[in-house]
Design goal:
The complex is a heterodimer. By secondary structure, chain A is an all-alpha fold. Chain A contains 6 helices and no strands. Chain B is built from 15 helices and 2 strands. The chains are: A mainly alpha, B mainly alpha.
Amino acid sequence: MKDIEHLLRVAAIFLVAIALFVAVRSVVKPESYGKLGRYRAAALDEIKALPVRYAGQQECGPCHKTQAREKAGSSHRGISCESCHGALAAHAAAPKTAKALKPEESSMRGFCLRCHEAAVSKPAKFPTVEGGKHNPDMACSMCHKPHSPKI
Amino acid sequence: MHDSVVIALRDTLDKVTGFIYPNELELQWSILIVLYPYLTGLVAGAFILASLERVFNVKVLKPTYRLSLLTALAFLMIAPLPLQVHLGHPERSFNILFTPNPTSAMAMFGFVYLWYLMAVLLMEIWLDYRKEIVGWADTDPSWLKRLIYKVMTLGVFKPTEKSFVIDDRVGRALTIIGLPSAVLLHGYVGFIFGSIKANPWWSTPLMPIIFLFSAMASGIAGVMLLYMFLCWARDVEIEMPCLDTVAKYFLTAVIVAFSLEMLESIQTAYEAEEHFDIIQLLIEGKLYISLIVIQICLGSLLPILLLGLTQIFELPEKVRKVFYAVSGTLSLIGIFAMRWNVVVGGQFFSKSLMGFTTYKLELAGREGLFSASVIAVLPFFVLAGLLWLLPPWENKPGGAA
């Protein structure tokens, strides 16, 4: 017994450590963890409770008939209104109090070129221009209508 | 969208060649993830060197036995740091232990790591030093050290002779368990990369084995250099039979690691699957310096040549030492390059196999060169502390060195 006393003490330390781990775990483990899978089941309700920020573009049409019609017939038809105007659920619910965002003339070039700047990595069929050479210093919207950009 | 974001997005296009997917633009696994397998590799390698002495009773290796164990411990203590810094939320890391996910290799690794640290390495060092610790607890001139040693005896101040015999046996059993644990520890790192199906540069079952042998090479080289350095710093003679034997193991590990790497490359080249074109471009382009020049030529072939010469010819001691030091250093650099080529290289090319992105190593910043260098140097400070507390070169009270 005396010969393995030190080993028994080490074993005791390990046992205490494991017991401590189990104890701490039972305290810190989130309550709903594991109910549905390896995540907190309560996270679903928390996420559900977050406010919805996007309205979806079918909401815009009834109030903005012109833009909706224009866009539907243009090559920008695949781009949702809110990818250019920002999240607008609040605006759609109360248009007078919550203003919609609109790309400003001063930053228009950067705004359009984020999609249209020429780059080798883009598919050849995608319409691109070289920002530095394509009518520099003029806002794109002076010539292209954003909702129907073909000239 | 904010103007600065728009401009930043546009500027990143310059970093790209060919066609890549948007999520591949930024390299997620930075230099810290290069450092991580490098550090665990040194741990596994150093431990395997120690095990050779213990399990196979290679007596000449005695002078490096304890040094290898302490080196393994020092590096193991720092090894998780690059991951913590990379992920940025150290306070959350316990969750992988508290809410374990048995189907995730990465998540399970926390347990492998803990097992290896607590049950294998700490136990083995403690058992090996216990006799001295009991002595030092009485005799050490510094009260602080005496106190630490007293705690480390766990209150058993008068151990019986028989208990040391038992310790020796338990220690050997631990080493025998420890060897596969060390293999698991490092094999796992290769496994993580090897099991990423989406990346042809990583996805090969050889990956764990390649990582393992390069880990052995780096760990043995590290201990060899440390041993030479410490002898020089303490102004004692290097025990040449020991150094020669370590170098022999080192050569073996380098040869096996290099052969496996080449085998894998040749196989990939011969199969020439659809991803081979982009890999060829990668090797000839972005990885030319770090793979062909540093990893293969300087990090593998030159050390094999130098070490081979020491095996074939009877070179004088001085020349051998220089050859060992040079090839050890080269190999450590080469193996770092190998980790770099795997981790960063594998993220250079697109899953589309039609384009590349770039990686710009920052100097400052959380994932920059500076923080990586600090982490890489830290284990040496830990090791200095361990050498201060548990000097490996003291004679055992009972006999042999």
